[in-house]
Amino acid sequence: MPLVLATILSAALMWASFPPLNLGFLVFIAPVPFLWALRRVRTAREAGWVGFLFGAAFFGGMLWWIFILGAVAFFPLVLVMALYSTAYALVMYGVREWSPMRWWFVAVAGWSLWELVKARFPFGGFPWGGAGYPIGTLPGTRSSAQWIGVTGWSVLVIAFAASLVLMTEEEKDRRPLEV
After folding, report:
1. CB-based contacts of 125: which residues, under 8 Å, 6+ apart?
2. Is the CA virtual torsion 31, 33, 36, 38 positive or negative?
3. Cα separation, 103 vs 11, whole angstroms
4. How far apart are CA 156 and CA 146, in angstroms?
5. Which H or E run contains 165?
6. 3-state secondary structure of 68
7. pLDDT band for position 5 (cuts 50, 70, 90)
8. From the DSSP assignment, how many helices (H) and strands (E) are in the chain?
9. Disulfide: which of 15, 16, 149, 151 matches 61 by Cβ 3.0-4.6 Å?
């Protein structure tokens, strides 16, 4: 149950960082509960459900307005986005017991790959919901977009969130920082 609550909290925080609330600062902590849950899943099935729940809750909430086009537009789009987050969760399940440094690297690179793939497939992609987009609502960050772009901000956001997850682990869970 704590994994489900963490996942729903993470999806709600991610949703709040996008319009209509536009609380962009939340994107820095929004992935933390989801990554925390993925670090603690015990089975691949549990990881898959946590990933699917995150994707369905976040994208379902963010894309509710597409329902105006009908269920035939809304449900397949949310399903595809939830399957992408499920794939990410399964990758993270595979590396959950790796050293913290390796886990951190896969968390950041995997999220970046997830955003890259969903931005290009299917039908030309769907880049909405990337972790770098809400940064544009924060004062002083728009000018950096010309240098690092949305993708760069996504990497920085997830790197920060994954670092917070590792810093909050209990001492018994710590493994040496080996590459």
Report:
1. 118, 119
2. negative
3. 21
4. 15
5. helix 145-167
6. helix
7. very high
8. 6, 0
9. 15
Instruction: Give the three-state DSSP class for 108.
Output: helix
Tokens of 176: 């040496």
Element (H, E) at 142: none
- Look-up of token digits 């699917």: 52
- The residue among 40, 17, 35, 8 whose CA lies nearest residue 141 is 17
Q: Which tokens in the block code for residue 6?
A: 């963490």
**Residue 90 falls in which region: left (phi positive, over 0), alpha (psi -120 to 50) or beta:** alpha
End-to-end CA distance of the chain: 32
Q: Would you say residue 169 has pLDDT above 60?
A: yes
Tell me which residue of 95, 97, 118, 117 sits closest to 106, measured CA to CA. 95
> What is the amino acid identity at position 75?
F
pLDDT of 61-111, one tens digit each?
Answer: 998 988 888 888 889 999 999 999 999 999 999 999 898 899 999 999 999
The 8-class DSSP code of residue 136 comes to G
Structural contact between residues 95 and 106, judged by C-beta atoms closer than 8 angstroms: yes
Q: Decide if 11 contacts 61 (C-beta within 8 A).
A: yes
Amino acid at 167: M
